[in-house]
Design a protein that fits this description.
The protein has eight helices and seven strands, in the order αβαβαβββαββαααα. The chain is an alpha+beta fold. The protein is 43% helix and 15% strand. The chain folds into two domains: 111 residues, Beta Polymerase, domain 2, CATH 3.30.460.40; 62 residues. The strands form two sheets. The chain has a five-stranded mixed β-sheet. β4 and β5 form a beta hairpin. The chain is globular.
Length: 203
Amino acid sequence: MKHRKQYISIILRRAKPGKGSLNGFIREKQMTLSVFNLKNIFIRTPFVITGGMATRLYMQERMTLDTDIVVLSEDFADAERELEKSGCTRKGILSIGGSTWILPDKTELDMIALSEPWTKEAVQHHQTGPDGLPYIDLPYLVLMKLRSSRAQDIADISRMMGNAEEESIEKTKQIIGHYFPNDLEDLESLIYLGKLELETGSK
């Protein structure tokens, strides 16, 4: 995407070691925000938590106001029935496909229904968080954020990849290269920026 490349180009020109506001703290991965136990709602429907709530598995937690999940498009109707059965209130539809709900604890849930070639892999091969809930694995979270390419998404990718171990970085490159090879150059730039932000800086 042209605007993403321009944005990354600007950051690359201005970036210096250790200049991120989280330098020295960015490696701390905390989970202070609680997520409603969605396993009590989705008894039959496979899902993964994505979005801001998922980033905290891979970088320092940042404030986010709602919970995003991904379900397969083929499971969407069943998932909505399970939400209704659990006393959740349907708020509206999502332009990207899916719906928004108010959960029993009054927090908001965005349920994204996808039928991309990689969706089933992302739902099946998840990471289990400290709270026991399924979170989207790093490569697929990066993939989704590259597709969205908002400024916050680009910043999240850089910081997550900066924190990532080499094995996770290579796995992410492989998956992005398989599904969206044209995005690999931007991913490499964001990995570089993420690692640069973690450096202590020159004296």
